[in-house]
Amino acid sequence: MSTGEDVVIVEEAGGDLPPLKWDEGLFEQVVRGYQLAPEWHARYPSQGQTATDATPGYITLFADFFSEGNFRLLAAHFQGNILQYYGFHISQMSPMGMVRMRHFVFVCRTQGKDPTVDKF
Predict the structure, then answer these.
(1) Residue range(s) defining the domain that contains residue 11
(2) How far, in Å, CA of 65 to CA of 92, rounded?
(3) Does 115 map to a domain?
């Protein structure tokens, strides 16, 4: 992920779950709480917009990536390399997938090694 990309954070329900009731106040708490830099231009989605409707030049990130998956911006180069290697987009990752990648990074760093796609 490039640091020049803008960020939209959206949560949406799937299956039989009711939609989450987000508002701009909660969105701003997430932006402040996870210290998203102003130059990333994180923005609250428009009325009726879903995760698949991100404006060109923006990406969608789910709040669960941060709260449940321990994802942080700036992302490690390793995370971008994994996405590129497997040919998928960050929006296709589940929070548990984010946890696995982050855990791998932590394990490598505790061993004094750089996380790489080959080691993963």
Answers:
(1) 6-110
(2) 11
(3) no
Per the listing, tokens 């329900």 go with: 13
C-alpha 111 chain-centroid distance: 26
Is 116 part of a structural domain of the chain? no
Quick: pLDDT tens for 59-108: 777 777 777 666 666 566 888 888 899 998 877 877 788 788 888 888 99
pLDDT tens digit sequence for 13-38: 445 555 556 778 888 888 888 787 88
For the chain, the residue count is 120
- Dump strand ranges (E) for the chain: 6-9, 58-61
Domain count of the chain?
1
**Cα–Cα distance for residue pair 98/15, rounded to 1 Å:** 22
